[in-house]
Model the fold of this input.
Amino acid sequence: MCSGNKFAAALVLALALAGCGPMADDLNPSGSDVRGAPAPTAAAAPLTFMTADGAAMTLDELLAGRKAAVLYFTMWCPVCDGHQSNMQARFLAAWPQVAFVLLDYVSATPAQARQAAQESGWLNAGFTVAVDAGIGMRERFGATMGTTVVLDAAGNTLMAEDFKDGERLRQTLETLP
Amino acid sequence: MNFARWFAAVLIAAALILCTRGDARAASCCGGGAASPLVIPKFAAAVAAASIDLETYDGYWNGAGAHVADPPGSALSQARLSVGYARRLGDNWQAGLLAPVVMNDNRYANESSSSQGIGDVTANVWYEAFDNITCVYQVESWRDLVPAVYLGGGLVIPTGVSPFDGAASSYDITGRGFYRLDAALLVEKTVFPWSVGFSYSYGIHRERPVNREYGDYVAPYTKRLGDRRSWSLSGGYTHYAPGMGDLTATVAYSDLAEGAATIDGAAVPSSSVARRAVGVTLAWTSLDGAWVARFGFNRAPRLDGWGENFPSTDIYSLGVSHVLW
Done:
């Protein structure tokens, strides 16, 4: 059997090499603010998405008479469920002039999105449920599970990041006129 | 997975193979090895283990503990290939390391994704609070009832891909991104052919700064996952097969809970999790005790109240351990 030192050396080397990979930020995390220039906030190209009722809706139609729209990218998972509960409890009633959209990017059809929302208790819960299939909003915003996008009345992107505890969303909504 | 990760995985595997060469002598009966493949039996020098776990997802529990189905057309699974090695440091001390390679396979109606990467590595140290083998064939005095008690510590090292480093999508995650320090207790008692076991662990995550989410830099904040507590209770029966070794069947109940995470010191709503499950394990031990093969099945029942903010899964495990003297 080889010595413990040899094994330990191999282990240290392996971990050091592993540390060269993308997990380096986890092994030695940084709190430095290294954000680049803010993303352009010019009005986005026309956005059209499909509601869970199967109706096509443009962003302009969604924003009509509202101050902003919040798009939450959901895959109907436990983390999403927690975020959605947080939004429902803290934001929906407090910002009645904001459209809150659960944007399902894993279902292929409006019917599937509707079924997923219904089975998980999020249909008729105060959100607009929409499906991203074939529309590419996820790619457009670089979104993944929990990404929360805030668009103002002009369609400018005010926020596009993970929901976390909802504080960034609250701060963003409080800047609305 | 990039080259550095693959090379690291190969290096770890090579180290394990190199370090498991040598003569294997007959193992003693017990006092380790039953509850975990990486606990060295009393008086043995080392143990090497490898296992494949396949975890299939089927719905989840929401924050109220109600079970919810997955979206239509979805099939989600994660496979983990783990290699581990533990060696004796002293008469009553042992230490081990477990390194997984994680393979995610997510299929939804609208998209599919497969990804691989090293998971979070775990290092453990155990102190054996007993000096002799505690397994007995019959109880003749109170001393025969003394169990094998292990006191342990563990460190989870965030070598996997988390949302806070290079992962571009939730599909790519293979680790949690946080160091965790565990304290653990393991109690085993065997009066042949019956055995019982109890394990408990309590883990504290280290707070860390975060300045990146899914590859995009964000305004820095600090985050800490909640304390993690788990325990399990098991009972087993060993069947002797003359000339063929032993076959042990074990039934276990496990309970896992993690408190709410915090961001900048404030609790994150709906972030505490819980999962309860039952499992069965069949283990074959070779006649000389040097080899153990295991098959396990662990199921979280799809019933309300068996979890909270957590996916409900089945876990199929196939593993082999080699004890060295």
Observations:
- Residues 57-177 of chain A form a domain with the Glutaredoxin fold (CATH 3.40.30.10).
- Helices of chain A lie at 4-18, 24-27, 59-63, 78-90, 110-119, 137-141, 167-174.
- The mean pLDDT of chain A is 86.
- The beta strands of chain A are 48-51, 56-58, 68-74, 98-104, 128-131, 147-152, 157-162.
